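new request in #modeling-help
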Amino acid sequence: MNNLILEVKDVAIAFGGVRAVNGATLNVEVGSVTSVIGPNGAGKTTLFNLISGAIKPDSGTILFEGLEIQNLLPHKIADRGIIRTFQGAKVIKRMSVLDNLMLGGQDNPGDSLVNFFNPKARRAYEEQCRNRAMELLQQIGIERFAHEYAGILSGGQRKLLDLARALMANPVMLLLDEPFAGVNPTLVEKLLEVLHALRTQHHLTFLLIEHDLETVMNISDRVIVMAEGRVIAEGEPNSIYENQAVIDAYLGTRKATS
Amino acid sequence: MNALMQPGFWVFILTMSGIYGIFALGLQVQYGVGGILNFGHVGMMALSSYTMAILVISHGINFWIAAATGVGVAALGGAFLGLTTLRLRGDYFSIVSIAFSEIVRYVIYNSDGLTGGVQGSLAIPVIGDNYPSYTDTWDSLMNRAREILNPVFGEIADREFVMAIIVWITLGTLLFLVSRIERTSWARVLRATREDDEVPAALGKNVFRFRLQAVILGSIIGGIAGIYWALESSLLSPDDFLTLVTFYGWMILILSGATKVKGLPIAAIFFGFLYGGTRFFTFWPFSTFDASQRAYIRIMIIGIVLIILMMRRPQGIFGKRQEMVLE
Amino acid sequence: MAEFVQLLFNGLVEGSIFGIAALGISLVYSVLRLVNFAAGDFLTLGAFTTFFFAVDTHLPFILAVIISMVIGVVVSLILEFFLWRKLRKSGAGMLALFLVATGIAFVLRQAIALTFGSNSRKFDIDQIKTFEFLGAQIAQAQLVVLCCASVAITAVALFIKKSTTGKNMRAYSDNPSLAAVSGINVDRVIIATWTISGAFGALAGVFQGTVQGQFTNGMGLDLLLSILAAVVLGTIGDAYGALIGGFVLGVVMELSTWDALLGGIPSTYKPVVAFAVLVIVLLFKPEGIFGVKARKI
């Protein structure tokens, strides 16, 4: 019917009196790269948390592939194909890089204790999973760290790991929370390469939060601008540049009205 | 000092070490893998042993079925504890877990008609005139085992000896199984949750389900320890299942380096000596106290050892060096 | 009706004792992030030392109580300086803190048993005198406990609200690092916390001994469960919550034995009621009655 993979309708949530998201409405088209931008405190990460299920909205609905997800638990939302990365790149520091990736494996028979008595199935999956993980590590260029503790990776490398791990989880839509923040330019190039390859190979949809406006303008099909918990503008990158409301929001000439 | 010279004493220590080792293993599955601080573990032991005893004595049920049911009830106890409290924050879970085992003990203490109450398993109501000891089936099994072992081991192979062997074979088997479980992806998910709940959830793992399974698995192992305990002491009493016992288990875990199973047998034996050996400290300065006072001192010593252990290793576990640097 | 009033009153008295002990535990948690499992044994210590000074040494009862409170404070502070301080510095985790607290509990309990023996004790107070109120028998001892508990609670509440140290305690519990760099005397805050918790622990023990009549060295442990339930119920770290949790639990536990409620639960099962209430509340409010992750005093 429509090619909207994600529909956020009038979603709101308040934390102890502060309306972090105050009636946000936005749509994401299948296969697109959509970026969410806005000044600090605009509610971008909270929006991500709402979509990924980490928190429940006070009101409004979120539809993914036409089905409501706003009341689902995070792991159920991940099951449906929305995989997110985290601001600051959360890695499990005391596990190896390879193990971190293998965590992303879906429908792993070894996850069920019952299959403890079926070592063959477990081994077969683990091997396949490991191969896939090593391939990904090679693709992003950190395969030499495969057996090291993830805690020794630099910030930028952790971002790559975070992204790779998300990819392991067979995503349909990727929620990337500031994937380029604090990453050196060469790695950013690498990341963009990988993202582009994925987009074409797997028809993935990307929804990202990003502060680097140049990158946003270069890679996005659509840009959504948030401020004070609402969506104040959306459209193609060029149109956003000239949008007065956006400029005001960033320059703060519009005072907070609550 | 004479007591220390008897081989029977050492065999007793060995058996107790084995039983507490199994008990500690149940804890290890929950903490070492899942980072779950269960302080109500003794409750599972109480549930399995009393269930078994009641089924055999009051209902004449076959020992093996009763024992299996006992372990099943321990699993249910773990399920109940997990379902009601695993979603809570860590310290709440710990507090409620203690409350859980205390309540179990409390109910046992106050249900004279069912459990014999303060008088212990001897007062469990019986059908008919005979008091079927729940050790009957086990004893005949042990006698048969003795007949096999006597030619090989000679006089030493008495009931105690056979018991010790069986307990340690069980412990060894369980250690093997658990060490293999710890290499599955199930354990990998749990290890991840020790550091961060959000990452596994974001990858589609139902963290609660994994933790619940860890608690149930640990409770099953604790239940097995309970059955052996019942067999070893032939007689149950609610005072056998104080929270103190849970902390014996924790001590063994701390001594062994809680994240891997390797050190557990040695830690268990060490603890066995600490626990059982101090009973026989009849020499000075301990001889200046009477028996009941010595009991107090024993527990005091255990408390002090616990404190010293934790003061020296406040990070809690003998984790790998690199892991600690990454904090 | 008479029975209801009786049970209600008993519940309030018991609840005030829970509240005092729970307050100490909640304070220690909010300032030091420590769940003091040894708290129950501080109650026992308070009761037994009061007994020693009042009955064995024939000092005036009030003096004996004061001495016990001082002893409670001193023991708490000794533990702070020799154990807790070092543990905090080495960044001890939850497991270490729990195990040390429990170790302390074991040692305390056995030390009390060694010193005082295992016989039950009884204060030399008039347990018999009662008043009648709406058909219920109110023991003078209970009334005294309720009044003293209320006074103590009010005193501490005022202290925390008005005094500088009290304000600093709240600031520190809210944000330890910020408080430390703002020049707050952290040492004084910590000492104040242990002082209140040590004194209140002893007081609660004396109150319980008074109300119970006879007590043994298992007294503190018997109560610890209900006290911890009150702490968790009222949301750990929330001082007012501890008080409310204490009263609610005390009253519910007593009322559960009321005949009119389907025959009532046998009074030996009161702790089970406390546990059931706790679990049920936590199922709906995982943080405790007060919901939010309260770390306020």
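bot summary: Chain A has two domains: 4-91+172-251, 96-152.
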